[in-house]
Amino acid sequence: MMYGLACVVAIGLAGGVFTAVFGTAGERQAVWVSAIVALVVQLLAFALARSMVDGGHGIAGWGLGAVICLVALVVYGFASRALGLPSNAAMLSLATYFFLTELIEPPLLNV
Fold first, then answer.
1. For residue 102, with 0-12 CB atoms within 10 Å meaning exposed, 13-18 middle and 19 or more buried, which class applies?
2. Is the pTM of the predicted complex or chain greater than 0.85?
3. CA distances in angstroms from 75 to 68, 90, 110, listed in the order given
4. Using CA atoms, how far apart are residues 3 and 7, in angstroms rounded to an integer?
5. 100 with 52: CB under 8 angstroms?
6. Tens digit of pLDDT for each residue in 14-69?
7. Which residues of 74-98 are buried (b: 16+ CB within 10 A; e: fewer)?
8. In what helix (H) or strand (E) does residue 75 lie, and over which residues does it extend?
9. What whole-number distance in Å separates Cα of residue 92 and Cα of residue 90?
10. 3-class DSSP state for residue 57?
11. Phi, psi (deg, nearest 5) at residue 55
12. How buried is 107 (Cβ within 10 angstroms: 0-12 exposed, 13-18 middle, 19+ buried)?
């Protein structure tokens, strides 16, 4: 619960900055689509990592979550192109969201 709230805040703040930076409607749409993708992927990856912490494998869970984010970023690169989203806005925002949420994950794994 606490991690989900922290993710929403971090992604929301970064999304606000990206919305101010990217000017076109398509770019803004890509920023918010990326925000939704990042939130869903990170919450699933955190749940997996959290379950591994309970078994004594916290670092492995965190690493697996990072790999899941990397795979999601690659897949999203192809999907965003297929959907016609501007690549710079889509990829830069998703990578930033993943970076920010990965930074706040370790302290909250044991909570």
1. middle
2. yes
3. 11, 12, 30
4. 6
5. no
6. 999 999 999 899 999 999 999 999 999 999 999 888 888 877 887 888 888 889 99
7. eebeeebeeeebbeebbbbbbbbbb
8. helix 58-83
9. 6
10. coil
11. -90, 5
12. exposed
